[in-house]
Specification:
Blueprint: H1 12-15, H2 23-34, H3 38-41, H4 45-53, H5 68-78
Bound molecules: iron/sulfur cluster.
The site of iron/sulfur cluster (SF4) has 13 residues, from α1, α2 and α4.
Length: 80
């Protein structure tokens, strides 16, 4: 049985098509991270960021090499 990430219905990477991610790449992310199993989504940077700060900016991708603290710093830079 297919399992899905608990964030699937609210994650902008999944629910929006206007983030500048091409359709093929989005499909790859979804099969590698979102529609697999807990082991897969628990290493997704978007999942980890949301878990840490209850929010995930759109620039974060599942395979972004950033800690939640680095995400916050980058987010703050973009808002100043
Ligand atoms: S991108 Fe990450 S957080 Fe978003 S639904 Fe997929 S696995 Fe979950």
């Amino acid at each position: 049985m297919e399992q899905v990430c608990p964030n699937i219905s609210t994650c902008n990477l999944v629910v929006r098509d206007d983030l500048g991610i091409n359709a093929k790449k989005k499909k790859e992310y979804m099969s590698k991270y979102c529609h697999r199993n807990e082991e897969s989504w628990s290493v997704c940077t978007r999942y980890l960021t949301k878990k840490a700060i209850n929010f995930c900016p759109d620039f974060v991708l599942p395979n972004s090499k950033m800690t939640p603290d680095e995400v916050i710093d980058k987010f703050d830079e973009g808002n100043n």
